[in-house]
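Troubleshooting: if your tokenizer reports a length mismatch, compare your output against this known-good record of 419 residues.
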Amino acid sequence: MLKKIQFLCGILPLFFIIIAWSPRQSATYKKSSLPLPSKSNSLQKIRIVLAQQVREVQISSPDAFDIWDSEGHLLESGASITDTMLRASGTGIQWGSHIFQRSPLVILSQGEGIRVGTHVYRHGLRVWREGAASITVVNEIPIEEYLKGVLPIEANPAWDPEALKAQAVVSRTYALFKAIENQEASYDLSKDVLSQVYAGKRVEKPQTNQAIEATRGQILIYHGEIFPAYFHSTCGGRTTRPEYQWDYEGHPVLRGVACQFCRESKHYRWQETFTFKEIQTKLKEHGFTIGTLRRISPLRRDDSGRVTQFLIEHEGRKLPMRANDFRLWVDAQRLKSTLITEIESGNEAITFRGRGWGHGVGLCQYGVKKLGELGYSYREILEFYYPGSDLTTLGKASEDLKSETGLGEKIRSVFSFFE
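Known-good structure output:
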């Protein structure tokens, strides 16, 4: 039956499988599975870097505030913050015309939040000096409040509630994994696509807030440990493994699945043309000595058909390059994925044709959109994209998604509908 389902799903051509690349395991690969903290409340706050090593930041708030040092001493209180500049000064941090000699500072809002630049962030900020002339600003916020500023950006609030619940669980799992992974670092996540996009209070929507509340505390685990629940916009027909994209170990849950539910995405098929000069300039910006480009071709592919390495030929030399790095360095908005189906080279330009948008690991967001419309529950959706995972609520016993009859298999059984 499984072979029949794979055939109906449009299994990739045999030559992709033959030349599929299994990345060399390395001691430098990061772990894709981490134990949960022994106390469920030990990682209730997430640290998101808002500005890193910048000269100054403007903040404001209509609400009362307190400023503390890292040892818990109250340094200042006020009824509001009126367009105040924070900057490094001497041995301390300048707050308007006042200089605090201690670093870091903790600025806590007693109301709705603090505006940093154009966004308002709930709860508090931690600010510290970076060298002699720059500061870093981090938003420290409970994870459930953090998600309210993530979901409206990472998912469309108009999507089916079950799709939004699935995204809530995935975003919560990813954030908590990064918090555990980065416990010894100065922050957990960035506010952009390098982690997951976080835009603060002003983007919050009732629909996404409801999805967060309906799944409060729920995360995905495997054999009692948390894993990075990656997600992306459009898989283009099949998801892939993290070890093909980054320096992370493989994981049984993130082995890739066939998915035909994202075909309605405008990114399902795409093409983009670059001049060789554009590519040459971008690669030089990232430290590569590149002569006149002659040809770019796939060197290796994974078992989803994605290119894992490009071969860049320039002035008689050949340079292998990891495909995901190439995509990010050249322009990830234009070169939408590494699922490249055709490359057409001219004398001065090259055209890439491909499918999908994003790295292709984990949950396919446009696939989730369709599955929600088809009536599947968020538990069914999660088991489909993360097969073998368990759903748990922090502080409670886990729910084995596999134990409920037909969860992922119900979705797999309708693949033929999309052929």
